[in-house]
Amino acid sequence: MNVMEMFSLKGKVAVVSGGAGLYGRQIAEALAEAGAKTFMASRDQAKLEEQAKKFRSAGLDVTALSLDQGDEQSIKDLLADVLKRAGKVDVLVNNAVLRPMKDWSDTAAAFARSMEVNATGVYSMTRYFGDHMAAHGGGSIVNVGSIQGVIGPDFSLYEGLGWGAPPDYFFHKGGMVQLTRYAASKLGPQNVRVNVINPGGFFNNQDERFVKRYNQRTFLGRMANEQDLKGIIVFLASDASGYITGAEIAVDGGYTAK
User: Fold this and answer.
1) Cα angle: 201, vertex 207, 211; to 5 degrees
2) CATH (residue range 5-257)
3) 8 A C-beta contact, residue 63 and residue 89
4) Nearest-CA neighbor of 144 among 194, 182, 101?
């Protein structure tokens, strides 16, 4: 097979949890641009459908569906809906995330709510979709983690800004790394690959003090942009990464290597 053909997702069916957010948009766009029939799913279906329409107007095959990742039945319903519409799932990108906590002093209830979606929900997505793939010849699961899942917080980045790094995010993104390794081991014999990417911070017109501090922490001197995840997503979803599973890949401009 020609090496460029190995990156093609033509004939593949991809599901992305989330899809209307900062990273979700480029993930869904990348999968569709590579040829996959792509489904985006989240609770805010109106916002998601608005984004899907923009993709379709650009000639991409993208459909918005409903998903409450904190509800196991909703996850099962999503899988059934995709199978009814497309007949299979080849690629799952676990991208959705709930951010109920604001800081260390927030309530235990907020921490628990976070885990319903970001820990239990991600596990359920991985298990139900992974079992489908395992029963049908294989597939690829890409978990969207974070640099915050592999390092401790640098609170100096947030000094004087009135916001910071809540503990739940570090907890569930760290757990995602281990879930990736577990699922890769469990599903590998059925040709299902599971990998995790750890993106760095996305530039979204944050306070210029934060941006300056953050940029200085990276080798490339900048935050992530609207293109920076597209290549790694297509690579891990496609046959180009056919011998890669259980891997943890930083996409952070060198932040965690510095």
Assistant:
1) 45
2) 3.40.50.720
3) no
4) 194
Angle at which helix 167-187 crosses helix 122-135, to 10 degrees, equals 20
Give pTM, 2 decimals: 0.97
Residues 217-254 have pLDDT tens digits of: 999 999 999 999 999 999 999 999 999 999 999 999 99
Residues, the chain: 258
Structure tokens at 77: 């319903």
Give the angle subtended at the CA of 16 by the CAs of 141 and 145, to the nearest 5°. 60
Residue 97: closest CA among 84, 116, 80: 116
7-21 pLDDT tens trace: 999 999 999 999 888
Kindly list the domain boundaries of the chain, sorted by start residue. Answer: 5-257
